[in-house]
Amino acid sequence: MTSSPKILHIISSWESGAGDELAEFAARLAPEFACEVCVLSGTTRREIPHVPTTSLGLRWTCDISTYLGVGRILRRLRPDVVHTWDTTAHAYAALHFGSQRVIAEKRETETSCGLLQKYLDRRTHRFVIPRTNNALPSNAIPVAKTVVIPPAAVPVACAKPIPAEELLEKLGFPSVAPSGDYYPVFQPQYEPARLNYKSVPPHQTPFLIGVILPLELEHRILDALWVFETLNYVHLNYHAFIIGDGKDRETCLRYRDRWKQFSRVHFLGFRQDAHRLLPHFDALLHLSSSAEHSGAILSAMSCGVPVVALETPESREYIVDGTTGSIIPAEGDFRFYRRTAVKRLLYLLENEELRQSMQTAARDRVASEFNFDTAVQRRTEVYRKLCGTMS
Fold first, then answer.
1. Taking a C-beta distance cutoff of 8 angstroms, is the pair 145, 129 a contact?
2. I need a labelling partner for 11 at 20 to 30 A (CA). Which of 4, 184, 206, 257 fits?
3. Which residues of 55-81 are buried (b: 16+ CB within 10 A; e: fewer)?
């Protein structure tokens, strides 16, 4: 009787954009494959049924103790396949010599072609890319090494949304009354010549807006805070929840407090139960251009949450603009897409029928185009082929 093939998954941290996908994927592989997960950095722990997890405490990008720790795990487990889920994990796995086959997930469309990257590419047996027109890791990679597996939304049990006031109470945040009458922007359309920009009574039920991104400035968290500050000026009754953690947390908190948003913008940190909060949001704001963290768009769509996202190759692939969500054109400077984000959010929140139609269309699109079961099947086929070449 032959033993089950051994699969070692390596990821830089659970806060990585592929963290939720890896956790669900490893749990499903457990009956057929002997899986283990190695997390290079991060203090957050996540329990996966029947899947051992090891954290190595990566402190810097080049950490010799983490490199040696990966080597110890490889010698102990002797995996048939090492599956790396981001660029950092790929580097630490491919630098080790051994009989294991290395699979690298390549989410980003732009990758380095330096000498070290080319060396790592030669030591990698398969590259998983999300689409056929995705940039290959380097010019030295033969097409035979690439496998196209479309991105998939991690299935979540979408609970029935509860009233916004009840959710705020559960999270420990008081509901704040608007500071004045609401100024609608689109109904009627503002026309300066007619001076029809009149206030109306504020919305009684607060709108809930979500952001799921690491607290790092490159993900445009400050731009999201600027958008929320602008919503204060029109006296919109809203609350924003920013889920994630990162090296720039203190900077983000400082700007939030400087702009006096502490009563409406709430930093929840990294939460394993983020999928439970998603169905309660009225909209998700996603201003990051990183492909690694674009999975939040699919997760929101699977829960029927309309997404307002910056235009990227990933958002264009996931969202049908005006039908399943709204795409902010990536043209002009940061002022342009800040203003456009405000307009798209207000238009979405002011039109309940549009939100409801987007909810249904987003769920249907994820179920048909980005099915998680299909992605699991495609990856297990790659495992079987690589394990078969070793026998």
1. no
2. 4
3. bbebeeeebeebbebbeebbeebebbb
Q: What share of the chain is helix, strand, coil (3-state, %, to 5)?
A: 40, 15, 45
Q: Tell me the per-residue pLDDT of 332-364, one tens digit each, with 9 for 90 and over.
A: 788 888 889 998 999 899 888 999 999 999 999
- Say yes or no: 291 and 377 in one domain: no
* CB distance 126 to 387 below 8 Å: no
The pTM (predicted TM-score) of the whole model is 0.83
pLDDT band for position 185 (50/70/90)? low
CA distance 282 to 304: 9
Task: Please indicate, yes or no, whether residues 326 and 347 belong to a single structural domain of this protein.
Answer: yes
Beta-bridged to residue 103, according to DSSP, are 83, 126
Whether 157 maps to a domain, the answer reads no
- pLDDT of residue 142 exceeding 80, the answer is no
Among all chains, which residue has been given the structure tokens 């407090």?
257
For residues 341 and 275, membership in a common domain is answered with yes
CATH number of residue 42's parent domain: 3.40.50.2000
Q: What is the per-residue DSSP string for 33-90?
A: SEEEEEE-S-S----BTTB-EEE----SSS-HHHHHHHHHHHHHH--SEEEE-SHHHH
| Residues 253-291: tens digit of each pLDDT | 999 999 889 899 999 998 877 888 899 999 999 999 888
* Within a domain: 159: no
Contact 301, 153 (CB under 8 A): yes
CA-CA distances (angstroms) from residue 365 to 64, 357, 377? Answer: 44, 12, 19
Distance in angstroms (rounded) separating the CA atoms of residues 232 and 234: 6
- Asked if residue 231 and residue 145 are part of one domain, the reply reads no
The residue range of the domain holding 60 is 6-152+371-390
- CA 293-260-221 angle, to 5 degrees, is 15
Pair 205, 342 in one domain: yes
Q: Are residues 215 and 182 in the same domain?
A: yes
Do 212 and 255 have their domain in common?
Answer: yes
